[in-house]
Amino acid sequence: MKPDSGDVPRAVVLVSGGLDSATTLAVAQRDGFECYALSFDYGQRHRHELDAARRVAGALGVRRHIVLPLDLRAIGGSALTEDIAVPKDRSESDMNSGIPITYVPARNTVFLSLALGWAEVLGAFDLFIGVNAVDYSGYPDCRPEFIEQFQRLANVATRAGVEKRGRFRIDALLIESTTC
Questions:
Q1: pTM of the entire predicted model
Q2: Residues 6+ positions from 153 with CB-CB distance below 8 Å
Q3: Strand order in the sheet with 34-41
Q4: pLDDT at 107 (0 to 100)
Q5: What is the DSSP string of the chain?
Q6: How high is the pLDDT of residue 53?
Q7: N or C: at which end does the chain have fewer Cβ atoms within 10 angstroms?
Q8: Mean pLDDT by 10 residues, the chain (180 residues)
Q9: How far apart are CA 26 and CA 46, in angstroms?
């Protein structure tokens, strides 16, 4: 959602280090937001993405980039946070059925919650996340209905929302994309 003219609006952008979040950050900046990047060191096995997130945030010149430590290995339940084999070469039909072992329980719910807290501190009302149609075929917290409901929650669960200082928006620019 493009900001109105006037003061440059702030946005919190979830940046994983992958192509989707890098694209989302670039589009948010192109659309005139002052971007604050938030990444999570959640105990994920693919640690190279955090290095990529740092490089992307640096290259795009975000106002601030936080890599927040949050060890989800204590919860487990995913091939991304436990010593569980990550499936390779899955067929398209396999990817379109069921929730994969790479699902991290409630990950985007947790990430968006923390991004929302930081946004409220910053006076930012836009939160950007790089979910897409390929993700939501298997991940419940990447689906349009989740994004819509989280946005509703954001506007009733925060001081800024209750006091009507602004309306929080969850900007999932790639939500209908199947090419990322």
A1: 0.83
A2: none
A3: 64-69, 34-41, 10-14, 126-128, 169-171
A4: 80
A5: -PPPSSSPPEEEEE--SSHHHHHHHHHHHHTT-EEEEEEEE-S-S-THHHHHHHHHHHHHT-SEEEEEE--GGGT--STTTSS-PPP-S--HHHHTSS--TTPPTTHHHHHHHHHHHHHHHHT--EEE----HHHHTT-GGGSHHHHHHHHHHHHHSSHHHHTTS---EEE-TTTT----
A6: 96
A7: N
A8: 68 95 97 97 81 96 96 66 62 60 72 97 97 68 90 95 93 75
A9: 23
Residue 147 in tokens = 């994004």
Tokens of 26: 């670039």
Q: Which residue has the tokens 């936080």?
A: 66
